[in-house]
Amino acid sequence: MLAVHILAVVIGFGVTFAYPLFAIVGTRMDSRALPWFHRMQQVVGRRLINPALLIVLLAGVYLASNLHQWSATYVQWGLAAVVVLGGLEGGFMIPCEGRLADLAERATWPPPPFPARVRALRPRPSRSARSTTCC
What we know:
mainly alpha, 6 helices
């Protein structure tokens, strides 16, 4: 059960350390990726972090009960940390990520036009190709 407890911590919180990298790469590639990034944060919070927190809590309760460690300081602090993190994630982070995604969608809509250079590089159909198409 200790392995389940540790795996839930690593899986649930490990992804959050990649968020800064995703944000940097996404904004350098295209600022229109920010709505996707914030929606993805929201989905990861709902479907990965919160269930992992529940598994951490349940496995921790089982371990503390099985080993009679309820009076140990690390159990009490761990229990408090899981409750606080769960409350912050569900009550603050997930709703804020949704609002950030909405804000980013409004800021990037309508999409900016292609630069003239990019338009000049697009292939244009030749006269023979235009005459052979049916539309």
